[in-house]
Give the backbone structure.
Amino acid sequence: MLPWLIKRILMLVPVFLAVSVVIFSILHFIPGDPIDNLLKIGSSPEARAEMEARYGLDRSLPVQYGIWLSNVLQGDLGTAIVARRPVADLIAQALPHSLRLGGLALLFSTVVGVTLGVVAALSRDRWSDRAIMGGVLVGSTMPSFWLGLILILVFSVSLGWFPVSGARGWQSLVLPVLTIGLGGTALVARITRVSMIEASGRDFVTLLHAKGLSPLRIQLRHVLRHALIPVVTILALRIGWILGGAVTVEVVFARPGLGTLLIKSLAQHDYPVVQACLLMLAMAVMLGTLMGDILQALMDPRVRAAMT
Amino acid sequence: MTRLFRKTLLSASVSLAALIAAQAATAQEAVFVMATNEVGAPTYNPIKATMLNTATGLIFDRLVSQAADLSYHPWLAESWEEAPDGMAWTFKLKQGVTFHNGEPFNAETVKGWLELFKTTEGENGYMAEAIASVEVVDEHTVKFVMARPEPNLLYNLSSTFMGVVEPKSFAALGDNYGVTEVYGTGPFKLESFAIGQETVLVRNEGYTWGPEVAANHGPAKVERLTFREIPEDSTAFLELKTGGVDFLLSVPADLMGEVQKEANLAVLTMPGQDVWYMPINVTKAPFDDIRVREAAAKAINQEEILASVFGGVGAVADTFLISALPESHVPDGAKIKFDPAHSNALLDEAGWAMGEGGVRMKDGQPLKVTLWTQSDSIFRRLTEVVQAQLKAVGIEAEITTFDSSMIRDQYKTGEQHLAVRSYNWDNADIVDWFFGGDRLGYPNVSMFNDPKAEELRAAAMTGAKNMDERIANFTAYHEYVLTQFPMAPIYQPVQAMAYSTDRIALPEKIDAPAFGAAAFLDLEVKE
Amino acid sequence: MSALLELQSVSVSIGKVALLDGIGLAVERGQILGLVGESGSGKSLTAMAAMGLLSLIGGRVTAGVVRFDGQDMAAMTEVQRRKLRGRRIGFVTQNPMTALDPVQRIGEQVDIVSRLHLGLSRADARARTLHLLTQLRIPEAATVAEAWPHQLSGGMKQRIVIAMALAGDPDLIIADEPTTALDVTVQAQIIQILGNLVRDRGVSLLLITHDMSVVAQVCDRVAVLYAGRVAEEGPVSPIFAAPAHPYTAALIGCIPQEGMAKGSLAGIPGAVPSAMTFPAGCRFHPRCPRASAACCASQPPILPRGEGRVACHHPEVAA
Amino acid sequence: MIAPLRAFRHPQGGLAGCWLILVIAAALAAPLLTPYAYDVQNLPQAYQPASARHWLGTDEFGRDLLTRLIYGARTSLSVSATAISISVLCGMVLGAAAAWFGGWLDRAVTMVVDLSWSFPEILIALILVAIIGPGTTGVMIAIAVAYIAQFTRLTRAQIMMLKGETFIEAARSLGAGNAHILFRHLLPNALAPVLVSAMLATGDAIILEATLGFFGLGAQPPVPSWGGMMSAGSALVFKAPWVIVFPGLAVAVTVVAINLYGDALITELDIRSRLRREA
């Protein structure tokens, strides 16, 4: 498995390079110039040129890219143009918040989603199945900012259980995690249910029944195990999705995090920060795919076999 | 290795002590929410920044303080004297003052600071422009040699931008100054700062040199202040309502009623320093025609806006300056007031005839203009009303919303016809800032560059030998600008703050134009 | 003593579609009953009905009785039925490639049967598994027990499935086309193994197949199924000597040769009609060389004939 | 083309279909349905709760909320549907080309698609709006691009699956050219799953449009869109909750309806397994 892992990681290198090119170049299409924020109004073109030189914006794009990439590889994400401090500091401030929120949301949607999916699959086509899948559908069709606002209105304003905004203590995580988690729950529950039903129809399940095993044991010990393989793969693939998808929720709850940092920097044309944020997300995505593959291998001997 | 170990141990014990101290201090701490127009200030560097928040004024003291009646009083300067010809100022400095990093405050540091202020690249240099050089008379006396008389000097010295900076650390820290570390002489020290999120200040225990206008000269009564930045007013209000924060440094007019509904919340109002207005781009057709500008300006129904958008709190604006300033007292004829009949007549006269669908037409072209605003909800709401009011005289305005931090760049393109903006300043030199011919694009969003105005502007900015002359010159400049209709004044709010009466005890009187150092020195937290 | 497994006029439907119509057959103790028919004639459904597993595919018995060892399966609780499955009835599936849980080791999949039904400990169950595997002539049984299903060949997997069926020490094995998915050489081995089981262990066997040659090889009796009905049933030798039903005759007449498509009978034109379009009268009549007006009009009753039974309006006419 | 009608026979599909028809009809006939204009302010009437005159109440400018909701449907539905149509067209071309020509093109397309699929649509759209600029057109293009990956993936998978089928082999052996096979055989057969998932994606696009509207990036005032209405209402949620509750419900109910109807359609077209492979 180790050679496979090394090969797999090496395969990420061209992907990383491609992503870095996309991230680097896309931002140069954004109209507006961060230098404008820095220059004294009415500054001379010389002052402007000097400022551009200072941030390396006067070189050709490929050269800028080369410099940027080599800096990034050395762990230097540059200096934020508007915030005037190392981008790494900003990321270091934001990332823990995002990881906490994203991680908990992932955990929530996995646990709740799988549970609901299993219950729905076991009670297939009965009212409990319909109720769960209906609830899940409705849950997934509510815009997350709207859901967040409604949750604030109910649980913070009316009931006073949780803080309205910010990131102070675990209480402030409950509503944001719930807001993001509910959307993810729908996805997980749906995939779990479908995979369970699909797996239940497989030949080996008939034989398990013929062996006299109890249906519950068959469902939980065998069918669920198979059903979880796609669930885990998709969840791992969606790590970046969950981190980035927290944007709206972070804004609604006025929480610090990669999303708010990205939105703000995007609005301010603070290239180095936007680039770093996107790079972080892209790396989370790549890491997610890798983890998905590893988890799949751990869960399925056939995949393991294909690796060697 | 051992040194490293000892260092680690030391820092660990220090941080543990700090932690325990922080725990003990929780009783004497309060959480504030920054005013929405101060959200996102990137630095606490008063020399470089174009935007400074309330916390800056608590870190840095100024030489001069201002009372509610706008008169000047001692702070770091005990007394001062202006030469009869206005060409020199002598300041006697308070003794025993130290910076947060232990450096002494004296004539040398004032000289060092002002040199930094004049030489550092930034937009604030004009405030010290009239000072030719600084002479150290003795350790506690400093003399400003002037290049020209500057009646506005005391105002400038009382502004947060001229908070006295410790020069050595400023030079040493470079770009990190004001971001990671910052040293002033103020009643509070910076503990932590996350841009756009939160600033924590702790009490300067040795502080005894508070401004004359404060009852308590130090140290402050509250040990620890947390300033949260919440961009959305309604979120901030809900935080206050649910006890998440103790004090909102700004409350929009439409939420004041909501605050008053709550038994344990109260509103604090102070005279406003803001003006909301609609800049009109004079270079962009059809607004290159002064008649069309006047028509647009007079289509704005300030009374309706005051009543409906701002719940009747505050006052209408009919000049560009807050009415507390003497320079705002221009003849009635120069004031810009709602007059739809006149607007319609002017548009007819300019050849814009009323067309179908209520939009005026000329040469087959509809009277369609762009109207820019920023994404904060109050701006969007006001802009929509402005849009409807323009529509009423046949001008169709198309709104484009920009992020508030981005809109300044956008103005530099000069592509907008109209915009809705606000400023916060209590000095007449704001007319120069927004209509000076050398600041086209931004801040001169109106792209106003008029030879006569430039003459009047020079006289107002640099030609006055004393305050009376300055007021007269600025009034003339202001009046002329108004008659050219490069903008339409809309509204002047009051400064409204909201706080929890369970948690906060305000001083009886806040003798300052704004809720700053003086108020924070006297403020108490209830147990 | 009654038959070990007995189906009396069993009808089965899935949803509203009636698929089996009055099936009657019996597996005597120590005997092998061959159940023959083309694809779609209802063989597997009969097996599921015998196992009491129709609910898995959404089917149910609408009429008739399934008796195992004299007991009515319908009268049992689900738990009782579960105790029959694996313990007294072993099941060998059609496709060994998909019959094993791909993410569980071979040994564990066999062990569970004896642990569950015979109450053996983990270690004893493993010992029994290894013993069974050895008996089924699986080389290096211990290694195989630790292997994953994907590491084994089809024939090997089918032996594992047979081992699983035997692990509970059953009285009856139902083998649903156990050789269809396998190579011809392997097919012979598997059939031989199954045949030996009956001889050596006294197990009864319900062998479902479409292959008349297999029936001729190992079965004591044979039941021919066509479109959800029993066409003919009886001891193997008389039927092979003189099949009464034209369908039986056709089946015998075209014992598949190598290279023929599986599941089809090239000798008989047409195909088994689907359950939605069963013709009236004798369901075989559209393909039957002897078909008469009576065949179109009415369904032939199943009547005793010699030691067996046949359902045909024209059983006398020689093929 | 009968399947869309047959989907009405499912109780949920029928109900959902009726709601969708209702919403679309209301959006089309907006001026006939309401006596109010969506943009005329009546400031003294601001923040009125539901009443006989204003069935859903009024917003912060005293405008009738129901009127704005109906006109808002115009914006929200047309932006989402147009965006998804563009997306489907581009995705089908890309996916078909990748599947058909294979090789480096396929690898490149697959990589880009896989990667962008892992990013939330909202992020892609936000960045694109930053590039294009706010407003209806910007949002439309942003949404379109954000969903291209999904349809490229789906089309590619369908074509890959169909490529191996006998009728394609038959066409090829009859001497049909690439273009002929691609346009006459492969794409039409791949169409049903793509169209159904396009319909489902339109639901997601409505949410995305609303979210962009919430960030103030969608239709500019006074033109109403569901997201824009909620964005304005979010500041007043405790004062006039109806301003945000009703547009939110409109989004949720419409998207649920699209999903239920789509589900019925999938059942009718019997393409569940073909879609699932792509889930």
Remarks:
- Chain A has a mean pLDDT of 84.
- Chain A is about 80% helix and 0% strand.
- The interface with chain C takes residues 202-214, 222, 225-226, 299-302, 305 of chain A (CB under 8 Å).
- The CA atoms of residues 240 and 285 of chain A lie 5 Å apart.
